[in-house]
Amino acid sequence: MLRLDLSNLDPRRVGAQGLDFAEALREEKERLEAARDALWGRRGDAAEFLGWIDVPEDTEAVRNVLRYRQANAWVEDFVVLGIGGSALGAQAVSAALGKGPVRLHFVDNVEPEPILELLRALDPRKTLVNVISKSGSTAETMAAFLAFRRWLEDALGAGWKEHVAVTTDPARGILRPYAQAEGLAAFEVPPAVGGRFSVTCPVGTLPLAFVGVDLEAFLAGCRKANETAQAGAEANLPAQTALVHDRLSRKGLNVNVFMPYSTRLRYLPDWFVQLHDESLGKAVNRAGEEVRTGTTAVRAIGTTDQHAQVQLFREGPHDKLITLVRLEEATEDLEIPAVAGLEALDYLFGRSFFELLSAEAKATAHALAKAQQPNFAFVLERLDAYTLGWLMQHLMWQTAFLGELWGIDAFNQPGVELGKEYTYALMGRKGYEPLAEELKAEGVE
Amino acid sequence: MLRLDLSNLDPRRVGAQGLDFAEALREEKERLEAARDALWGRRGDAAEFLGWIDVPEDTEAVRNVLRYRQANAWVEDFVVLGIGGSALGAQAVSAALGKGPVRLHFVDNVEPEPILELLRALDPRKTLVNVISKSGSTAETMAAFLAFRRWLEDALGAGWKEHVAVTTDPARGILRPYAQAEGLAAFEVPPAVGGRFSVTCPVGTLPLAFVGVDLEAFLAGCRKANETAQAGAEANLPAQTALVHDRLSRKGLNVNVFMPYSTRLRYLPDWFVQLHDESLGKAVNRAGEEVRTGTTAVRAIGTTDQHAQVQLFREGPHDKLITLVRLEEATEDLEIPAVAGLEALDYLFGRSFFELLSAEAKATAHALAKAQQPNFAFVLERLDAYTLGWLMQHLMWQTAFLGELWGIDAFNQPGVELGKEYTYALMGRKGYEPLAEELKAEGVE
């Protein structure tokens, strides 16, 4: 169960940067429902990259993943070679719900020292390497694959092939033919699913199967979010949170804090940051006009960041919208014991950690409102696979709605191309010599 | 060795949101040197909280920490109970430079499930618990201490006392008399040192001693930053980076990205976020006038966030200043091997991971500039204790300079008090009944 608490948006509490939500919903009902209809209407077209809507309905893909997991009970260390959308979803969900004993590792950078440290710590006989790249051309991921591939063969000879699983496009790119030629296990990123929307396909589900996440429940939660995304504006939760973002960004709030009250959800903001920033930070709209959209998502964790960022959130400029995530029940709780000699802390004695966490979450939300800092909360009944699936699919829908409301393509990322080309030029890749010359002339080499 | 690369601030490259640094330095020389003189002039006054300037000169405190570490060679797991400034510094440095075999754990939240998981994984006979709270009143830290204290006594009886080290104020608060009464090892947070400036005192050095960080070199680096902070404006590196922040924030850039190109530095942005946000997000200036200062620091890691945030940084609104951290040399490098069947990647064959990391860092900085996104870099000769100490003390100075330039108190955090009082009220603490009634009337309970 997931619900919204919008009470701290009320302008009577938070002043001019607030939002009369009920009034806004009446005013924008038509626009929101038009956006909904446009998104649902386009989902059959692969070029629209709306495949993430349908993936949670595809239970065969999950069964396939689970069969592979069962057939590979020997795995003790599971290494994801992936960056950005190929790592962030599984990282967020595994931190929240993963259970041992398989250890999950993410190689999402090319700094040599941590890669060397990991290679030295792993036993190749007990290690499965999952290389994840839809295009097969991501430099960081492919460099890591070359190194891990060599490391496996040096240790296992021809047996290396049993220790690699490839997750890539069903047809395009260099990894698919390579997997076929070598006879490697291979999984599909559906063509109409972009990296930041890929947690429900094998990009996410394969690693998560190895750490015991209940994938059926996770996908059922995603389907529940799909259901809410079909409703009229009055019950369409993703349209509603998109509306909050849309209205407050139009008031000039360009900073967008995402703050779950949970250490288990510590990587969820990183996943959200990519989803939100890469989807909505766009120079031009669909009509080709320069628009420069996008608010900057900021990671925070409660209560931890009460001691790091909340000072700014309360006293700094009124340029922020804060999204909180709050749990209503603990999975397992722990009593705070009484200790003789520390009676100054008697207000804690006999209470529970979850009571303290909940009190801090409510206290801070209210203190932010008192400082006229608008904030709203996703309230989760508890942290389980169903509810987390619902929340993540909700946030994908929220992002899609915002793209639609702003008239931009939320599913491309043209802004990262130039950096890739400069990298190729600096690495001496064939065909990039003119660009390398150009860079040299500008002092970059 | 640390130097600045300011070339991507040049308005000829990045347009109106750039900065002619040489001209700005000429214009602001007097103001910067007045700020420098004010800071150095006030440092003897404990009420000014400038003790962090002098701590790196205090080699006796470090020797004390190292003696304790040597006397406790039995420790296999070192648990920090601390939140905000009591955890972030040691976390950042240990991730960058820590060496096993002692495992360092940070309990910086009160969510019950992760605390239970840690307690179940630890062997109390091999565990040292370091409770860190300057005031001794931080609810989260003290709740955790009550639970760990009980857990140790349940397992070890009176022997629990050998498994606790207390880091707190030398006189104030409840932890100092408690440590004395129970005969616990105790370390000092100097009265004139605030949490976010405390990494050089035992708050940081005690955990770091247990993971083998070269503390003498770390503090020598901090002293080097002090030296640069005494220079005239033309050589005063912290005054210079403060100037960049000051000028660009006055142009309306309210988002402040901090992006090291290093997984080892993955927690440095979190430490910087607290330092910057909590110091500079202030409602009123020293004259009591409402000012609402502060830019929002945003965490990013290169190359990882090229695949998450750089799309927004390049194509989104021109509201950002980006600080990069780049390394000139690897500590240890790894070759990217050639693999038959993957010749499409031949531009990577035989190159090294560090070459790729460096190319990506330079390519992205240049691509950001091409999108008129101002950025500058701290260039570190390599990642070692001396250079990291220099960088961190530099950033403390940068923060202090900005507070001075903006006329605010960078060393308090009045904005977090109301949330603490609401928490006490919701937890039923004696004396907070009226506030609890007030909250109830507003629907918070």
UniProtKB/TrEMBL annotation, chains A, B:
Gene3D superfamilies: Glucose-6-phosphate isomerase like protein, domain 1
GO molecular function, one term: glucose-6-phosphate isomerase activity
Top-level lineage group: Bacteria
CC annotations in GO: cytosol
Catalytic site: E278 (proton donor), H307, K420
Keywords: Cytoplasm, Gluconeogenesis, Glycolysis, Isomerase
Record pathway: Carbohydrate degradation; glycolysis; D-glyceraldehyde 3-phosphate and glycerone phosphate from D-glucose: step 2/4; Carbohydrate biosynthesis; gluconeogenesis
Assigned EC number: 5.3.1.9
Biological-process GO terms, alphabetical: gluconeogenesis; glucose 6-phosphate metabolic process; glycolytic process
EC primary class: isomerase
Catalytically driven reaction(s): alpha-D-glucose 6-phosphate = beta-D-fructose 6-phosphate
Localization per record: Cytoplasm
Matching PANTHER family: GLUCOSE-6-PHOSPHATE ISOMERASE
Family: Belongs to the GPI family.
Function: Catalyzes the reversible isomerization of glucose-6-phosphate to fructose-6-phosphate.
Protein's name according to its UniProt entry: Glucose-6-phosphate isomerase
